[in-house]
Design a protein that fits this description.
By secondary structure, the protein is mainly α. It has one domain: Up-down Bundle (Ferritin), CATH 1.20.1260.10. Helix content is 77%, strand content 0%. It binds MU-OXO-diiron. MU-OXO-diiron binds next to helix 1, helix 2 and helix 3.
Length: 171
């Protein structure tokens, strides 16, 4: 595998694990604030991010490359209202999209068509992640000021259940 493509993919394992850590910190915030539905939503999001890390890990193994696990940064955000984690979430997903695009660019430059095909799933996934994060912000802005509506929103997020992402389910 091209050295740059390898390094970016190996690094992405770390970035996805950081995402899991970040969303766990969001779940902690909402749990402390009594919004258990939002806490549930982010706990499941953390599981998905862990899964994304495993998908990249498996890809390196399947291609005979060594995985180098790196130290995970500490999530350090403090929140003062229910909207802030949601906005931080969208900002973070946009950043992750830029990382996936960077790996894709490196793969394209190296004519690594296998890696490009592998990354297609993540390109679509990022579109969904950003769309969902944006929707959560819109709903909080619309309904978050009213206790009854916020309760109902929280109930909706409490209903989210974990499902294994397809690349991992098919691995
Ligand atoms: Fe692994 Fe939320 O992107």
């Amino acid at each position: 595998m091209d050295k740059k493509v390898y390094e970016l993919i190996n690094d992405q394992i770390n970035k996805e694990l950081y995402s899991a850590y970040l969303y766990l910190s969001f779940a902690d915030y909402y749990e402390e604030e009594g919004l258990d539905g939002y806490a549930n939503w982010y706990m499941i999001q953390a599981q998905e991010e862990r899964d994304h890390a495993l998908i990249f890990r498996n890809y390196l193994h399947e291609n005979g490359e060594r995985v180098k696990l790196l130290a995970i940064d500490m999530p350090d955000k403090e929140f003062s209202n229910f909207l802030e984690p949601l906005e931080a979430g969208l900002e973070h997903e946009k950043y992750v999209t830029s990382l996936i695009n960077d790996i894709y660019s490196a793969a394209m430059e190296a004519k690594d068509y296998r890696a490009m095909k592998f990354l297609d799933w993540f390109i679509e996934e990022q579109m969904e992640e950003e769309d969902t994060a944006d929707d959560m912000i819109t709903k909080m802005k619309l309904f978050g000021g009213d206790a009854r509506s916020l309760y109902e929103l929280d109930q909706q997020y409490a209903a989210r259940v974990y499902s294994v992402p397809s690349p991992l389910a098919n691995a």
